[in-house]
Amino acid sequence: MIKDKKYYLGLDYSVLIDEINDDGEVLFTASIRELPGLIVYGDSLNEVYEEIELAKADWIEANLEWGREIEEPFKDSLEEYSGKVTLRMPKTLHRKVKERSEIEGVSLNQTLVQLINDGLFNDMQSSIEQLAKQIENTTKQFSQTIEEKVAAPEQHFYYTLENQSKKTSPYKEQVVLDSGLQFQRIFSGLLEANK
């Protein structure tokens, strides 16, 4: 069987969708864990799901062109997991977890499962929050750079002059502080110098 774009698009990849709350604004992210670097953002679940499907097709096509190996979907089968784990821990930690389970009125096993689950969720939430902050900071820097460029009092004019033999003179740059009269003076001076 040829493993081309059509083949990979026919596979059943699981889409991971997360919700991000940023100062009252709700955003959604979608990613596919087998396709590293593929992540999209959207304002709604429908938008983010549509975007991930489009991005998945582009991602697969690009990686096939680059000759990269593409992972097939992970099997979601739980058959290889028994749900039992032998865990070794220091006696002091064992005591703390046992005391916590007694206070909450649940078994030691339930307390350990809850602590592991909370830790995984907090770690994932922290990673998403860090990513959101990085995106926010990059956007702010980009906006600030644009504002500085737009608000800059000087403008750059690039021009090329042709002499009588139709050869192009070297590239020149002129910084113009007053785009009105100053430009006319420079341009008329260049025309006279070229005669």
Automatic annotation (TrEMBL):
SUPFAM superfamilies per record: Ribbon-helix-helix, TTHA1013/TTHA0281-like
Keywords from the named record: Coiled coil
Record-linked Gene3D superfamilies: 3.30.160.250, Met repressor-like
Highest taxon of the lineage: Bacteria
Pfam families, sorted: HicB (PF05534)
Stretches of the chain forming a coiled coil according to its record: 121-148
One record GO biological process: regulation of DNA-templated transcription
Name used for this protein in its record: Toxin-antitoxin system HicB family antitoxin
Record organism: Streptococcus danieliae
